[in-house]
Design goal:
By secondary structure, chain A is an all-alpha fold. Chain A has 4 helices and no strands. Chain A has helices at 6-25, 34-43, 46-67, 73-80. Chain A is elongated, with a radius of gyration of 18 Å. Classes of the chains: A mainly alpha, B alpha+beta. Chain A: It is found in: Mitochondrion.
Chain lengths: 84, 276
């Protein structure tokens, strides 16, 4: 397998960012960003695509957690406990 | 602290010498007076002229001799006392520095390694002695973190190379592959050229890489395969090694290039101070 050079890497990142921007504007509706998705998938190795998908999911979760929009099981149990 | 201590000791010694001189001169005066001039002869003294001449010259002589002796003795005493205090102080500082160094040296990070450079030359840790090393562990198929960190490493290298003349020991950035199955010397060579011409890339057999990672406490694990491709999960840390080959410091993702380079510079200056 050939080396992943700078040009290839930057092209992949560019298409990833385009796809993510599309998801941002369309409120995560993947059907509306299929064109960008295809470009993203063809310009990055498949392992990178899964890695970036997981990263985005995780980043969204982190942001929501910081804003208090999600409640994990642990948070729920903390809230249920009466404050001393 | 030592300055204040020296100053204090100097003050007390001068105070002591002054008092000693005063008291000794007083003593000699009294002795002289009591021996040559009995108190009962007070009335005679006024009238007689002869006895007065001799005592005066002798008095001067006596005072002169004794005060010089005491001055030299006290000065010598004070000097030796100060010297002793200074010696004790220096010993304390030295032992403290030694202790500090020992505390750092105790950290069980780093150790021997034997790998292959991107130019296919076999190399060991001993070949790098006399240089400051900043080591980053990664792999060439890394999606996002390694490139970011290697850009940082390149930036740190640029900053430190500008101040090259200040330090005796040169600075060497190193990339170590944690994916020896795929990262051949040729691949590593092509990869590091993207970042900086000063990088040295290291790879080797799986055992060689695993051995080094064990010494440096670097975790790495091959992820699930998609076809032939996979991602290696690994610790994202840069390690700073001093010219003696000892681990000094580490830098994570939270530090930018400026912070890392200024921290390294501080270590370089401290090293210069202790290894004069």
């Amino acid at each position: 397998m050939s080396v992943v050079d700078k040009d290839y890497r930057e092209k992949c990142w560019l298409h990833r960012d385009d796809y993510w921007k599309c998801l941002d504007t369309n409120k995560e509706e993947k059907e509306k960003c299929l064109k960008f998705r295809q470009l993203f998938e063809t310009s990055c190795p498949p392992t990178w695509v899964t890695h970036f998908d997981q990263k985005r999911e995780y980043d969204i979760f982190k942001r929501q957690l910081a804003l208090g929009q999600v409640e994990t099981d642990k948070l729920k149990t903390i809230k249920q406990q009466p404050t001393p | 602290m030592s300055m204040i201590a020296n100053l204090l000791s100097f003050r007390t010694s001068t105070y002591l010498t002054r008092n000693i001189i005063r008291s000794t001169s007083l003593l000699t005066q009294n002795r002289f007076l009591s021996s040559t001039l009995p108190p009962s002869n007070k009335a005679d003294n006024k009238n007689s002229t002869l006895p007065n001449e001799l005592p005066l010259s002798e008095k001067k002589k006596a005072r002169f001799n004794i005060s010089w002796k005491t001055v030299s003795v006290t000065l010598f005493g004070a000097a030796s006392l100060m010297g002793f205090i200074y010696y004790l102080d220096q010993r304390k500082v030295k032992s403290r520095k030694k202790l500090q160094r020992a505390a750092v040296g105790k950290m069980a990070i780093g150790g021997p390694f034997s790998l292959i450079t991107h130019e296919k030359k076999p190399i060991t840790d001993k070949d790098f002695h006399g240089q400051w090393l900043l080591i980053y562990f990664g792999f060439t198929h890394c999606p996002d973190i390694c490139p970011e960190e290697l850009e940082k490493l390149a930036e740190v290298t640029e900053i430190l190379r500008k101040q090259k003349s200040k330090h005796k020991h040169s600075f060497q950035p190193i990339f170590v592959s944690v994916d020896p199955e795929r990262d051949t010397p040729e691949l590593v060579s092509q990869y590091i050229k993207d970042y900086s011409p000063h990088f040295i890339g290291l790879t080797g057999t799986r055992d060689q890489v695993a051995e080094m990672c064990k010494h440096y406490r670097v975790y790495f694990s091959q992820g699930p395969k998609v076809g032939d491709d996979y991602i290696v999960d690994h610790a994202i840390i840069m390690y700073l090694i001093n010219p003696n080959g000892d681990f000094v410091d580490y830098y994570g993702r939270n530090k930018n290039a400026k912070e890392v380079s200024s921290a390294i510079e501080q270590h370089m200056n401290a090293f210069k101070e202790t290894n004069k």
